[in-house]
Amino acid sequence: MVVAALLLTFIGISEIYTINPALAYKQMLFLGVALLAGYLTKRFFDFSYVRTVYTPLVVITFALLFLVLLFPSHGVRRWIDLGFFRFQPSELTKLLLPFTFYLYDPWMYMWRNFLVGALAFLLILMEPDLGTAVSVAFVMYMMFFYAGVNIFLLLYPLFMFLAVVFSFNIKLFVLLIGVMMLLLYRLRAKWYITIFFLVSALFVGMVTPVMWNTALKPYQRARILAFLNPGKYRKSHAYQLYQARVAIGRGEIFGEGWDRGTQKKYGFLPEAHTDFIFSSIAEDFGFAGSIVVLSLYFYILFYLFRGIVRHRYGDHRRFLMGILLFYGYSFLINVGMNLGLLPTKGYPLSFVSYGGSHLIVDYILLFLALKSLEKAER
Question: Does an H or E element contain 81, and which?
Answer without folding.
Answer: strand 80-81
